[in-house]
C-alpha cells in the first residue's frame, strides 16, 4: 500500500468514526449487535476490513461513499470490537478469581454452614437486608440438606449503607461465629427469615440461642475487621450486589434451584 493510499485509508477511517455518531447507525447497532456479536461474525468482519484495505485504488470520495452505502460494515466493526472487549473482560475476571482463590475459599475467619469439610463449596456474598438474599436462603438450605458434601462459605457483605442494621448484623454474625460457630447457622437463618431487622432483634436472637451477648461483643472489633476485608475482596472481584455466588470459580447470582446447584458439582 502506497503512502497516498495509507492517507486515504486513514481519512476514510476517520470519516467512519464520524459516521458512527449518526443516529441511524446508533439504532442499527442496538438491533444488529446480537446478530453480529458472535465468533462467526468476527471472521466476517475481518474479511470486510481486508476488502476495504485492498480497495486502495479508490479516491477519498469513493471510499467515503462505500462506507455510507454499506453502513452495516461499521455496525459489524463495532459489534466485533464489543465482542472482543467482552472476551477480554471475561478473561480478566477469570484471572482475578484465580488470583484471589485463597481469600475466596480458604479464609478461616469466614462463617461456614453445612459440612465444614465439604467438597461442594458455594461462596455467598450476602446482606441480611437484601430481599433477594432472603429469597435465595431456602434454596441454599435445601442444597445443604440434600447434599452431604455441601458447604456454604458466607461472606458478610453489607451493601445497604442507609440501613445501619446491615453492618451491625454482619459484624454480630461473624462475632457469634467466633464465639460459638455451631450457633451461627441458626442465627443466619433467623435473620434471613425476618422481614425487618433492628438492633434489638439481632441481639435478642443471639441471646435466644443461649449465647452471652457480652462475650459476642468482645469479638466485635475482630469481626469488624473481617467485614472490611470482605468489602475489599468484593471490590476486587467486582461484586456490586447481593446475593453473589462463586461456584467452581464462576461468579453467579440467584435464580437456581437446589438441584441445579447440586448438578454444578457433578
Automatic annotation (TrEMBL):
Transmembrane in keyword set: yes
Keyword entries, A-Z: Membrane, Transmembrane, Transmembrane helix
Transmembrane segments: 7-26
Thioredoxin domain mapped to chain residues: 86-266
A Pfam family matched in the record: Thioredoxin_4
Superkingdom: Bacteria
Keyword Transmembrane helix on entry: yes
Protein name as annotated: Thioredoxin domain-containing protein
Organism in which the protein naturally occurs: Vibrio halioticoli NBRC 102217
Amino acid at each position: 500500500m502506497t503512502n497516498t493510499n495509507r492517507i486515504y485509508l486513514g481519512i476514510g477511517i476517520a470519516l467512519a468514526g464520524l459516521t458512527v455518531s449518526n443516529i441511524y447507525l446508533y439504532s442499527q447497532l442496538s438491533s444488529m449487535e446480537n446478530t453480529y456479536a458472535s465468533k462467526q461474525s468476527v471472521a466476517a468482519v475481518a474479511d470486510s476490513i481486508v476488502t476495504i484495505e485492498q480497495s486502495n485504488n479508490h479516491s477519498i470520495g469513493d471510499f467515503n461513499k462505500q462506507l455510507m452505502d454499506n453502513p452495516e460494515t461499521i455496525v459489524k466493526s463495532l459489534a466485533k470490537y464489543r465482542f472482543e472487549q467482552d472476551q477480554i473482560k471475561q478473561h480478566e475476571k477469570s484471572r482475578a478469581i484465580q488470583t484471589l482463590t485463597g481469600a475466596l475459599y480458604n479464609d478461616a475467619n469466614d462463617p461456614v454452614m453445612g459440612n465444614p469439610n465439604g467438597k461442594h463449596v458455594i461462596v455467598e456474598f450476602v446482606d441480611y437486608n437484601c430481599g433477594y438474599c432472603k429469597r435465595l436462603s431456602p434454596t441454599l438450605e435445601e442444597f445443604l440438606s440434600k447434599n452431604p458434601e455441601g458447604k456454604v462459605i458466607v461472606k458478610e457483605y453489607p451493601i445497604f449503607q442507609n440501613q445501619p442494621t446491615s453492618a451491625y448484623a454482619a459484624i454480630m454474625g461473624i462475632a457469634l461465629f467466633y464465639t460459638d460457630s455451631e450457633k451461627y447457622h441458626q442465627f443466619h437463618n433467623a435473620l434471613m427469615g425476618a422481614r425487618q431487622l433492628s438492633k434489638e432483634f439481632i441481639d435478642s436472637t443471639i441471646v435466644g440461642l443461649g449465647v452471652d451477648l457480652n462475650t459476642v461483643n468482645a469479638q466485635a472489633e475482630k469481626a469488624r475487621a473481617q467485614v472490611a476485608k470482605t468489602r475489599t475482596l468484593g471490590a476486587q472481584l467486582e461484586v456490586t450486589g447481593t446475593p453473589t455466588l462463586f461456584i467452581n470459580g464462576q461468579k453467579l447470582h440467584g435464580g437456581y434451584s437446589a438441584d441445579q446447584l447440586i448438578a454444578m458439582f457433578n
